[in-house]
Amino acid sequence: MSTHQSPAAPSAAPAPDDGAPDPLAALLQRWRKVPGGLLPLLHAVQSAIGYIPPTAVPRIARALGLSRAEVHGVISFYHDFRTQPPAQHRLRVCQAESCQAMGSRELTAGLEQRLGCKLDQPRADGAWALESVYCLGLCAASPALMLDGQLHARVGLPQAVALIKQTEELRA
Ligand code: FES
Questions:
Q1: Long-range contacts of 17-23 (CB under 8 A, 24+ apart)
Q2: Which atom of ligand 1 is nearest to the CA of 99?
Q3: Which of 32, 106, 130, 131 supports an S-S bond with 63, CB 3.0-4.6 Å?
Q4: Cα-atom radius of gyration of the chain, to the nearest Å?
Q5: List of E strands, the chain
Q6: 138 lines ligand 1 (CB under 6 A)
Q7: Per-residue pLDDT in tens (0 to 9) along the chain, 172 residues
Q8: Contact 148, 87 (CB under 8 A)
Q9: Given the DSSP bridges, would you call strands 145-147 and 89-94 parallel, antiparallel or unpaired?
Q10: By the 8 A CB rule, do 25 and 15 touch?
Q11: Residues 6+ apart with CB under 8 A from 59
């Protein structure tokens, strides 16, 4: 039997019992004693798994001595944390003031129709996520969006639809 845990330390919640790899265990071990470790732990979980599974919340809470509500509160406060597997393509449309003044709401409505999903509600097939973002640093070239990490400025609906089509064609 081998263990790296101090016998006096509180143990993290048990790992899933299905024999599958448990990437969360090492992360909990790494961050459980670090003051203020919740945020870096959540980032590490999302980086390792792609999102923060709801089943991870009680384990994180127990490992860090927090309540589930505290962990959930932080996850829901920060827009960048995902609680579902990421979509294949992520289209983030700026909803902040400058972009709104230049038509980002209308752009968003058109994109909802084109993609068949609502803003901030991933499409059921997991292919696309249409997400809100509040300023991409391109206010002088509004409306702005980010497609799979690439910034695009002064994007109207026809240009955005062309970008989507191009992305879908590359994937096909
Ligand atoms: S307000 Fe949209 S990029 Fe700044």
A1: 23/48, 23/49
A2: 2
A3: 32
A4: 20
A5: 89-94, 128-133, 145-147, 150-152
A6: yes
A7: 333 333 333 333 445 556 667 889 999 999 999 999 999 999 999 999 999 999 999 999 999 999 999 999 999 999 889 898 889 999 999 999 999 999 999 999 999 999 999 999 878 899 999 999 999 999 999 999 999 999 999 999 999 999 999 999 987 7
A8: no
A9: antiparallel
A10: yes
A11: 12, 13, 24, 28
Residue 79 tokens read as: 């827009």
Task: Give the residue ranges of DSSP H helices in 32-79.
Answer: 38-49, 56-64, 68-77
Cα 137 to ligand 1 centre (Å):
6
Long-range contacts of 72-78 (CB under 8 A, 24+ apart): 74/38, 74/39, 74/42, 75/42, 78/39, 78/42
Closest C-alpha among 54, 163, 55 to residue 114: 163
Task: Write out the two tokens for 117.
Answer: 């999903």
Cα 83 to chain centroid, rounded: 7
CA 11–ligand 1 middle distance (angstroms): 45
Spacing, Cα 140 to ligand 1 middle (Å): 8
